[in-house]
Design brief:
- With 560 residues, this protein is an alpha+beta fold.
- Helix content is 40%, strand content 22%.
- The protein is built from 19 helices and 18 strands.
- The strands form 2 sheets. Strands 3, 4, 5, 6, 11, 12, 13, 14, 15 and 16 form a 10-stranded mixed sheet that branches. Strands 1, 2, 7, 8, 9, 10, 17 and 18 form an 8-stranded mixed sheet that branches.
- It is globular and about 70 Å long.
- It binds flavin-adenine dinucleotide.
- Flavin-adenine dinucleotide binds next to α3, β8 and β16.
Length: 560
Amino acid sequence: MPETTEHVRAGGLSALERERMLRSLAGETVDLLVIGGGITGAGIALDAAARGLRTALVEMQDFAAGTSSRSTKLIHGGLRYLKQMEIKMVAETGRERAVVYENGPHVTAPMRVLLPFYSGGQLGPVTSRMGLSLYDFLAQVARKDRHEMLDARETLEREPLLRRSGLKGAGCYVEYRTDDARLTLEVLKKAVELGAAAVNYAEVRELLYDGKRLAGAIVQDRIGGGTYKLRARHIVNAAGPWMDGIREMDRSKRGKTLLLTKGVHLVFDQARFPLRQAVYFDAPDGRRMVFAIPRDGKTYIGTTDTFYAGDPAHPRMEADDLLYLLDAANAMFPSLDLAPGDVESSWAGIRPLVGQEGKSPSEISRKDEIFVSPSGLISIAGGKLTGYRKMAERVVDLVSKRREADGLAPLPASRTRSLPISGGDVGGSAGFEAYVRRQIKAGTAAGLGADEAERIARRYGSNAPRLFELAGGSREFAFRHGLPLGLAAELRYATLAEMAASPADFWIRRTGRLYFDRPGVLRLKGAVSAAMAELLRWSSERREACDRELERLLGEAVQP
Ligand SMILES: Cc1cc2nc3c(=O)[nH]c(=O)nc-3n(C[C@H](O)[C@H](O)[C@H](O)COP(=O)(O)OP(=O)(O)OC[C@H]3O[C@@H](n4cnc5c(N)ncnc54)[C@H](O)[C@@H]3O)c2cc1C
């Protein structure tokens, strides 16, 4: 298949098209420019494109490389925020869980979570039952998914690793597991399918004005080096932890500002930490609650929550984070006796919270807030992955109001509530399993083993046929580079349809393997680098820089 046809067939986000897209954007005035390609920016681009706005999104790193690939990877209402009486937020995000699941069952799956209680602990059977009943009610949980209460014996049957002494029982309730970076990509790809343009490694360096009114931005291509003037009628600042930096560019950073806190997660192999099911528990200092979650043959635990003053682009696990989480894990699962050498990988993320004086990190509200500057810059901060769709709806409603003030017709109402994201056309959550079974046949016909075909169908949903097509045409490419056929297809898809521009993009944001399959990355990193160098026509300098970056990230994931 010639490469140009491959691009078109694979979708609209080819890493080979980045410069052409920037040049073409520089020749027009878009309705909406979104700064930031995390979940907030991606959600806004989708809502705006779905309402007919010509939308462009620029991201200075890789898509989701900010906070949106570094979360606890849960679509959840935030049970613990009930303690802080954040009733409205818990109700909204709790209800959103089912919407996110329905529109993208390939990136979200329900999962039962145990909430154990111990004699002398903060929670007891009565408070747990009350809290979980309120959660079910606020989030309008379907009957089959409502919480249940377990005694100590039933609790240990579900999770034998739990500390036994003092265990009185547990609540058991449903949350949703996700892949945060893939969720962001699927939302963005849907926006692109509906006409938006999106470019990664494209940094806003300066804002442009017509008189006092914001009118565009100067964007620098961090790979090619070129500079482009993008003109836009409205600009949204969805820069997450960097939001205040953009407000400073606009000279409008006044009133509330961001507070950054860091959260770390540790990953263990299931052979060392054979957790059967997710558990949500108090850390020994009683100040935070920590999740332990089984996933893809691994168990991960997190998160910490400490104020952060370093570079938001490079948060990493430090010795204190490591010890805090090991202590928490060993207190709740004492038979494991985990040590620093057991950590197989880790990640750290920065929460962009809207500042509240005098509160500790875990007490600061996770509510989103919107700020509009005199020049017209719309900034949004706070919030959660889970609430991205409602946040986007509020921002685009505001854009619509501002257009009306300019004498334009109001935009139609948001369409995203029942709009499947990219890969989500699988017959809804009810149809997903049957869809996967049908796709396994198509995958094996393309030369993949049944397990590999199933893995791809589960991860890519209704885009799986494109990957199978790529697999069919990748045998020689895979053989030449010593890559398994399924991985070769994923790599081609990542570069041609998801704008992966470096091995770190592929191993972290496209496949999550740096966190969940480190041995696989160590085995195949050379082959993937050579294959990407061929696909993206890299110079030897570019390849060396990319390889160095991956080595640094592999090191940081295990060394505090
Ligand atoms: C440890 C941790 C655990 C969490 N767990 C959960 C969870 O389980 N569930 C949940 O719902 N939420 C969770 N959250 C919250 C959630 O991850 C965040 O609310 C969300 O990812 C924020 O997304 P964002 O798009 O606003 O920011 P980001 O993902 O950081 O995106 C902003 C982007 O803007 C880009 N940018 C900045 N400046 C510029 C510029 N000048 N030009 C171009 N681009 C620019 C950045 O590179 C960045 O990629 C967690 C957060 C943390 C830190």
